[in-house]
Amino acid sequence: MHTLRVADARDSGMEILRTSLVKDEVLFQEGETGECAYVIESGKILIVHDVDGSQETLGVLGPGEYFGEMALVSQQPRMASAIAGEDCILTVVTRKHLEERLAKSDPLVRHMLHLTLRRYREALNQGFIEQPSGTTASADEQLAINRMRTEQALLQALENEEFLLYFQPIVRLADRVTMGFEALLRWNKPGTGLIAPNLFIPIAEDSHIIEKLGHWIIDEGCRCRAQLARQYEQPLHQDFTVSINLAARQFQDPELVSSIGQSLSRHGLDPKTIRMEVTESQIMEDLAHTLTVLQGIRSTGCKIAIDDFGTGHSSLAYLSRLPVDTLKIDKAFLLDAMSDESSQKIIAGVAALARSLGMGFIAEGGETEEQICLLQDLGVEQVQGYYFSKPFPLAS
Ligand code: C2E
Ligand code: CA
Ligand code: CA
User: Fold this and answer.
1) Burial of 321 (0-12, 13-18, 19+ CB in 10 A)
2) DSSP 296-358
């Protein structure tokens, strides 16, 4: 990538940047924190996102179009990657540029612009299904319209049976036996393809749709657990579980515990073959209420894991009081562990903590042989990661 500094004649002292890309060159990757937005002067940019390791094209942008602008208003990771579809020249707008210009402007203009940019960001976040284009609606109207459209699309998708669960094995390192699967939601949207859960679950959580969708996920997870017991080519381990994710908002659903109980009996399951995954930050949000709901879930007989452990500031004092049988450490620790000794110590420490509390321990995100060997050396019992398998759908 060649970045040129070009003096901006209209604004002496400041510079604008231009960058050129050759076909197939990656400008930025999904998950990176961005600093810049871009305007295409010539060429084509593909906006793609990763679903289970394969790339899906969300859009193709051409001259005059603008992208990556979220980076100007927030430090959230990029939601998609940008790749040159052909040789391109782009104008680069950095956060610093914007801030320098804003600092010189009238405080009222500055304030209004900040508010508008924030609303615009929310509108885009809510409306990923249909990006606003060529519309003259205000940011408020756009936000409302996009949210409505998305909610309707999610309800319609439930009705049309466009959701499905993918399953990823959880493997015991000592003997490489598969101890269970985690159920991971996908939306197979006609004309678009598979959509990853991070892109639509937050929208479902902003409305009551998550309750309906949550009941479907629980029931489908139970149905698949029963199907696995009948169909899996090797006999399942006696402790084989299917793990089902719960969204934070499902903790407010008065029907949650009864829907778990109903699904368990509808599919004739031994409750201990199902494990509910709850993130550490969900638990800490309202500890007293969560504890009551977790006890309700536990009373159905199914197991409970704390997911993304290490990211949610949990109080260790409470850990032993929660009705939880497994800790899953967030994959970020493993990502750092190859080069950072303190991450290795954290993984080994949490594995030891789980053991001393009589809990199971799962490390997420094992992708390479080296990582698997390291985890084994650190005393990790079970691993879930691309090294063993990417998530896959069950044969019907
Ligand atoms: P999670 O619960 O932490 O799920 C693990 C995520 O890590 C999955 O992403 C999985 O595909 C990915 N993963 C597994 N192994 C590897 C690896 O080796 N490398 C990398 N880079 N990634 C790996 P996925 O399926 O996109 O799900 C993302 C998040 O969406 C989940 O994170 C969970 O928070 C949420 N989610 C997924 N399914 C559901 C669901 O049914 N209900 C709710 N409420 N949330 C769900
Ligand atoms: Ca999970
Ligand atoms: Ca996790």
Assistant:
1) exposed
2) HHHHTT-EEEEEEETSS---HHHHTTS---EEEE-HHHHHHHTT-HHHHHHHHHHHHHHHHTT
Question: What residue's CA is closest to ligand 1, atom 46?
Answer: 245
Residue 289's alpha-carbon distances to 207, 305, 322, in angstroms, are 20, 17, 12
Residue 112's contacts (CB-CB under 8 Å, 6 or more residues apart) are: none
The residue-averaged pLDDT of 198-217 equals: 90
pLDDT at 348 over 50: yes
Kindly state if the Cβ of 185 falls inside 6 Å of ligand 1: yes
Which tokens is 277 given?
Answer: 């995954």
The crossing angle, in degrees rounded to 10, of helices 256-266 and 287-299 is 20
Task: Read off the pLDDT of residues 129-155 as tens digits, 9 standing for 90 and up.
Answer: 444 444 345 555 555 566 667 778 899
Determine how many CB atoms are found less than 10 A away from the CB of residue 118.
Answer: 13
More confident residue, 56 or 89: 89
CA of 118 to the centre of ligand 3 (A): 28
Do residues 123 and 143 touch, judged by C-beta distance below 8 A? Answer: yes
Mutate to test the pocket of ligand 1, among 222, 364, 371, 383 (most ligand atoms within 8 A of CB): 364
Ligand 1 contact, 198 CB (< 6 A): yes
- pLDDT-based confidence at residue 297 (cuts at 50, 70, 90): very high
